[in-house]
Amino acid sequence: MTLKAVLFDFNGVIINDESIHENLIDRLMLDENLQLKRGEFREICLGKSDRACITELLQRRGRYLTETYLDRLLLGKAKAYQEKINSLETLPIYAGLAEFIDKIRVSGLKMAVVSGAMRSDIELVLERAGLAANFELIVAGDDLTASKPEPDCYLLAVELLNQKYPGLNLQPIECLALEDTFAGIESAKKAGMQVAGVTHTYPFHMIQRQANWTVDYFADLELDRVAQLCSIAPTEPAAENS
Known about the structure:
By secondary structure, the chain is α/β, with parallel strands linked by helices. It has 2 domains: 5-16 and 92-230, HAD superfamily/HAD-like (Rossmann fold), CATH 3.40.50.1000; 18-87, DNA polymerase, domain 1 (Orthogonal Bundle). The protein contains 10 helices and 6 strands; from the N terminus they run E-H-H-H-H-H-E-H-E-H-E-H-E-H-E-H. Strands 3-2-1-4-5-6 form a 6-stranded parallel sheet. The longest helix is centred in the first third of the chain and has 21 residues, at 67-87. It is globular, with a radius of gyration of 18 Å. It starts with a strand and ends in a 12-residue tail after the last helix.
């Protein structure tokens, strides 16, 4: 097998917006006459779709939502996120991302975003950051009901890339997923992919236990080495120098 595609998570990999989402979820809960507990956002929501996050938070409090009401909450949060992003003079895009994307593009690898975030969130940020043209496609939280850590989103990305490029014959093992959370790493591994964990959300030693490669910065991830190791399908986690 050879490395053919790099699949990016969004929140925590492309943009540092955890605090924005936590504030929006906190506001949503208050609007529902509920309160977000300390640490609850990180426990329940990190790495998962907005749909899964909101559903679990409300179910813990005995609230079981109709799909119509849940869609209304999701749309409200998406609108609030867009307003916040549009109010920022500079987006909190992670350092080195643009250069890393350029390196992938020069290598001839396909790129996609695979995230539980709403499509409107992803498209807005990528357009404002001038990154949208680099990605062949987006798999977003509103494309599927299943959330990470289930593998559905990553498997759908492979399917859609093969539809777009019929001669690609892409297999999951030929994909490298970039993730920052345990749910995301598990999702990509369940799909049969190799995973590079970036330490944007959890410390190095915690990510290293889960991912095949672990880096502090995008520049630390050596694509040539990853491609070589992907050709022999490693199963044990490895760490890049950082």
